[in-house]
Specification:
By secondary structure, the protein is of the alpha/beta class. The chain contains 15 helices and twelve strands. It comes from Algoriphagus halophilus.
């Protein structure tokens, strides 16, 4: 019998396509956003330790209590914000789980959800699966800042949710205090919730501080803050993250989460709880990644490509529209095949595949790999 697809427009993601192509053509993979190096060996030892201790059965649905407590301590230390570990913190199987569960707990058929595009590719499908209607608001180019008048114009009596992302993927833009205040003013007297994707919270550059939605009193009371241990500690394959939200929102969130993944790998949770005791493991990340960003950008300056160093995340965008009219998708494919460097065309982050002649490179790789990629780009006849 034919299946009537709930997501007929969805196919294989660009990240899978480009990573496979990078493998097929033995290209340097600067496309998919995952670290090209291993995590701290001590963290692996901690996982082994808790496996040997027998922490191998189901964890509580909301997460191992000790990890939730450690996360509350970290949140207070970094942001000065209090959450209750029992009723407002949930450990999940990756930020995608957190985002899907949050959307499903709030959005009903016919509800409108505002997306700031370019937007990460898991947002819109979650909305559509709930019967919601994505409403797209373009960010300002070239800096990818928010056009708040456009957001205001997009609001309607059907708006149920606004989804935000800082540091932003793919651009690296980081929200300012003015951004938080503008969002708060728009929704303070409306029944509108916020889902905030903050997986790159500790990957920030040039002295910038990540401003979480939780740091604004109005936003904290209506925001699901979604984070990722995988991004922070170079273990994206572990698929482990968290969601922080007020008690009433968390209650509804958990009703969904328990039937999505129920619980997350137990020994990983115990290992991360112990690993979080040392704040240096996350406070030193900005310096670690800035060296990689600066290394990559220094090499880009020797090319004709245009760029502004990313404010956060582990992605760097480059613009080539002044050099070629070739589509970003075709260029990304051609460079992977011909010069051996894979990237992501950012048109895939737009609903209508708007082509702004921009490619996204992931610099969360070994220095020698970044140096090799830069030399290839510098020496190749690109256009």
């Amino acid at each position: 019998m034919p299946i009537q697809s709930k997501l007929p427009e969805v196919g294989t993601t660009i990240f899978t396509i480009m990573s496979k192509m990078a493998s097929d053509y033995q290209a340097i993979n600067l496309s998919q956003g995952y670290p090209g190096f291993n995590c701290d060996p001590h963290l692996i030892e901690l996982v082994y330790k808790y496996m040997k201790e027998g922490k191998n059965q189901y964890a509580p649905m909301s997460g191992v209590p000790l990890l939730r407590e450690r996360l509350v301590e970290k949140t207070k230390k970094v942001y000065g914000v209090d959450y209750d570990s029992e009723s407002e913190v949930t450990i999940v199987s990756g930020a995608t789980d957190a985002i899907y569960s949050a959307v499903t707990s709030i959005v009903k058929p016919g509800d409108e959800v505002i997306l700031l595009e370019p937007a990460y590719d898991c947002y819109a499908p979650a909305i559509k699966l709930c019967g919601g209607i994505p409403v797209y608001v373009p960010l300002n180019l070239p800096d990818f800042s928010i056009h708040w008048n456009s957001v205001k114009d997009a609001l309607s009596d059907k708006t149920r949710l606004i989804m935000v992302n800082t540091p932003h993927n793919p651009s690296g833009y980081m929200w300012t205090k003015e951004d938080l205040e503008n969002l708060a003013q728009l929704i303070v007297d409306k029944d509108i919730y916020v889902i905030s994707d903050e997986v790159y919270e500790h990957i920030t550059f040039d002295g910038r501080k990540h401003l979480s939605m939780m740091t604004h009193p109005v936003l904290k009371e209506r925001t699901f803050v979604c984070g990722s241990f995988g991004k922070t500690f170079h273990v994206t394959g572990w698929k482990i993250g968290y969601c922080l939200a007020p008690e009433e929102m968390t209650r509804e969130f958990r009703k969904v989460h328990q039937f999505v993944t129920f619980s997350t790998a137990t020994p990983l949770q115990y290992a991360l709880a112990e690993y979080l005791e040392d704040e240096h493991h996350y406070l030193e990340l900005p310096d670690f990644y800035q060296k990689k960003r600066d290394l990559f950008c220094e090499g880009l300056r020797e090319t004709e490509l245009l760029f502004t160093p990313a404010q956060g995340s582990f992605f760097q965008q480059v613009s080539y529209g002044h050099l070629s009219k070739e589509s970003d998708f075709d260029l990304a494919v051609r460079w992977t095949k011909e010069i051996g460097v894979a990237s992501i065309p950012i048109s895939v982050f737009f609903k209508n595949k708007n082509d702004h002649k921009i490619l996204r490179f992931c610099f969360a790789k070994l220095d020698e790999e970044l140096e090799k990629a830069i030399k290839i780009i510098q020496k190749s006849k690109l256009f």
